Amino acid sequence: MSTKHRQSVNVAVWGPAGAGREGGRSTVAEQGSAFDGPVVSSAHLAAGAMPALSEFEFGTILVSHAFERWMVRCMAAAGVPDLSPVDVLVLHAAHHRDRPKRMADLCLVLNIEDTHVVSYAVKKLARLGLVATRLQGKEKLVAATPAGAEACRRYGEIREALLVRSVAALGLDRAALSTLAAQMRVLSGHYDQAARAAASL
């Protein structure tokens, strides 16, 4: 590629709207400092009062999809293929502290509004012999079976070997990571509140 041709290549920079000829899209030649701006996927949203929140949302999008892929692949490697991300989450939650969980508690802990989603996952896991259900009064209790507990154990081993070890090698501040997790939980409450407000519009 010639020098002249290289100089004419457009590199998209997703900055605030109006930051270039194409309303948020500019070229390196036109806006050399644009890479200092927020890294977002929706420049029209980042143009508002809090671009940092758009950065957080873009990071959340990437992490959520990567995390879902990881859960499915890790559980498949543990010997249980064809589970969805929700199936894996429900299995781990049912096995948490090795005691039965109410369906309502599974929905609450996982912040899943549609109870049918969790109910479907429980039925699927029960068909596979990974969880068992029983009634306690009018409440349905869900618990991991020995097979489900073994799947969680193998998942944990693979997680330690492939994920935890590589993340630990980055030398991240573990206290800072815990603080970040706490802040994300707080932010989830604000998104829930905003969703309730939006539903009333």
UniProtKB/TrEMBL annotation:
**Cross-referenced InterPro entries, in alphabetical order?**
HTH_MarR-typ, Trans_reg_MarR_HTH, WH-like_DNA-bd_sf, WH_DNA-bd_sf
User: Where are the bilayer-spanning segments?
Assistant: none
Per UniProt, residues of the HTH marR-type domain are 83-148
A GO molecular function annotation here is: DNA-binding transcription factor activity
Question: What Pfam families would the database entry show?
Answer: HTH_27 (PF13463)
- Where are the annotated coiled coils located? none
Which protein, by its recorded name, is this? MarR family transcriptional regulator
